[in-house]
Amino acid sequence: MRADPSLIHSQSEVRILAAIRDLLGVAATLDEVAAAALRLCAAMMQADASSLLLRDYDGGYRKFSFVTTEGARDVEHLRLDFGEGIVGAVVEKGLPQVVPDVSRDPRFSERVDTVGGLKAGSVACVPFRVKEGIVGTLEVAKKDAGSLGDKDLELLTALAGSVAVIAENTRVLSEIKDLHDKLEQANRVKAQFLATTSHELRTPINIIIGNLDLLLGGFLGELTARQKDSLRTALRNSGEALNLISSLLDLSRIEAGQFVIRVEEFRLDDVWKELELLFRIGLSGKEVELSWEAKEGLPPLKTDKIKVKEILSNIIFNAVKYTQQGKIEVTAFPLGAGETVQIEVRDTGVGIPKEYLPVIFEPFRQVEGSSPSVHGGVGLGLSIARRLVDLLHGQIVVESELGRGSTFRITLPTKYSA
């Protein structure tokens, strides 16, 4: 026994929206949204079949069909000539159409108006609108002629408006996901390229640094003061190039999510001894005093030594680059009951303007006027240090005054916990 159509038509648009949202709330793809929407339309309109025509990227249309006796049909792809069939007229004029008896309407097209192979007696078709305009049609069909009228058209129009919003949102989300997947793939390729290139460049630069060191040490003969100055400049620039390559390699690993925490016990004194020579190479030719002090009671750390080393390397090299004379003081001391340590890097360099402090930890950021040709680098060191500190559940803050220098404070847990 068929339900009284008047009861269906009396439902408010709010209830229609609620029904659609309940039914489509779990739909994930456009195909699932279309199938769910067509089932709902057929049920609410007491129709024998329903179809959704959606414009595709190539200018054609995708046709989703549902027949009550068979369920959802495979998606068809078709070209719609201008004004062809009932659906063509609706797309062309943007007006809903009801055809009580398709046998008496010359516009009816077997090719585009037939819904899932059903031999229809009457059809109702409304435009499918999104913000960009009409992108297709929503159509229902019944076997018996004269079984669809203007009241059915009103209900179908309300349904189409609600379904269009959900379908468009689903389409946009699908496009965003596709774009996200493509960007992730591009990032992986970029990271692999950077890692490979950086690795290939490190070896020859290390050889250059080793040979320069031999020359400066007098192992290959005595040098004049002028020759030594030139070699110190070459040694300093080689060290900066090596640091830049290491930074690119670190950035590629971070962006590719390739960093793994390897916990071991060590002392900060040992880390300093491993890094000090590189810092002094960077200070070659500068009148800068470099000092290290580990305060009494400084406990050993049980965390990732390599990452702590990279953090200190990037922060102190930043001080080395921007300090032409004066001093760089590095101090480490325990905080509280020894559960955390703080490493303070204080320099008498050029300083950082107050307005730049919020952005200095962003990648490829450099203070205006700090040309790479003058100071070296491309603005990666602080960004990498910040990301590594975050990985180790620490904090990093900076205080600076233009022309007076900067102080970076790094706070790390003495014991890493995931």
Quick synopsis:
The protein has helices at residues 5-9, 13-24, 30-45, 85-93, 110-113, 150-216, 225-255, 268-282, 305-322, 372-375, 381-391; strands at residues 49-55, 61-67, 71-72, 76-78, 97-99, 122-130, 133-142, 264-266, 287-294, 301-303, 325-335, 340-347, 395-401, 405-413. By secondary structure, it is an alpha+beta fold.
Describe the structure.
This protein is α+β, with helices and mostly antiparallel strands and about 425 residues long. Helix content is about 45%, strand content about 20%. The protein has eleven helices and 14 strands. The protein has helices spanning about 5-10, 15-25, 30-45, 85-95, 110-115, 150-215, 225-255, 270-280, 305-320, 370-375, 380-390; strands at about 50-55, 60-65, 70, 75-80, 95-100, 120-130, 135-140, 265, 285-295, 300-305, 325-335, 340-345, 395-400, 405-415. Strands 1, 2, 3, 4, 5, 6 and 7 form a seven-stranded antiparallel β-sheet that branches. A five-stranded mixed β-sheet has the order 9-11-12-14-13, covered by helices on one side. Strands 8-10 form a two-stranded antiparallel ribbon. A hairpin with a 4-residue loop joins strand 11 (about 325-335) and strand 12 (about 340-345). It is elongated, with a radius of gyration of 35 Å. The model is unreliable at about 1-15 and about 370-380 (pLDDT under 50).
